[in-house]
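INTERNAL AUDIT FORM
Audit reference: QA-55
Scope: verify that the stored structure record matches its stored sequence.
Auditor: D.O.
Record contents follow.
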Amino acid sequence: MKCIATVLTTVFFLVGGCTVSETNRNPVGETFPTVTGESLNGNQVELPLALIGEPSIVMVGYVQQTQFDLDRWILGLVQAGAKVKILEVPAIPASFPSMFLRGTIDNGMRKGIPSEDWGSVVTLYGSEAGKVSKFTGTQNPRNGRILLLDKNGVVRWFWDQGYSATRVIQLVKESENIQ
């Protein structure tokens, strides 16, 4: 069974790597696209609706290797005392993995994330992920896309150049200014 999961995950990343690369763009001032995903605890989540009413940080990753970058952002934000909701959004725009490997991918993530954090991970597949990939771009996919949304779902801060301690501090200050 473990061998099958490894093969399927490998196929996913090979096929996922064949998706069209979207030109990176800075979406500051724009409303986060309306998309529906599923949290790792199994709940349907509509974004940005689920975040309306309070500022939040949305961290988007397009490939498995992005996790290293996002983990550093999470640690930095927690250490810097960020007081906003943080949501991690794996986005997998390729249709093939969406149809056949969704369960394998989600279960793999569940194995590496404590169950108390499953609600803060919302995975997007196929066309829903495609909306977000067009919104931020997918060039340099190992870098996470870090977005600060205001209480209305409008992007107020954006970064896609990889983890930066200086940018963590900047982001935390900005999040305090929009509360």
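Auditor finding: record pair retrieved intact. The first strand starts at residue 35 and ends at 39.
Action required: none
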